[in-house]
Amino acid sequence: MQAKYPLKIQAIRSKNQQARLYVYFPLPLAAAIGLKAGEEVQWELLDRGELHLVREQVSSILVLRIINK
Questions:
Q1: Which pTM was predicted?
Q2: Which of 5, 17, 35, 46 suits a disulfide with 50, CB 3.0-4.6 Å?
Q3: At 32, phi and psi to the nearest 5?
């Protein structure tokens, strides 16, 4: 199963500071992998067109599977 979440990079410009770029993480995607606010992650650059988000500690996720009969 592949899910895509198009988004735009946001720029925050503060007076007397360089612009900072932000990427938001869509809530459905965060919920699917159990990502929580405040969790520390890092980007891994594979090439100019691909980044991987790396989590040092992955919390266990309770998954409920509903089977329709």
A1: 0.61
A2: 46
A3: -65, -30
Q: What are the tokens at 15? A: 């007076």
For residues 17 and 54, give the distance between their C-alpha atoms in angstroms, rounded to a whole number: 28
For residue 57 the two structure tokens come to 């500690």
| Strand ranges inside the chain, DSSP E | 10-12, 20-22, 41-47, 50-55
pLDDT score at 65: 54
**One-letter amino acid for residue 65 of the chain:** R
Span 40-46, mean pLDDT?
91
Contact 54, 41 (CB under 8 A): yes
**Alpha-carbon Rg of the chain, whole angstroms?**
16
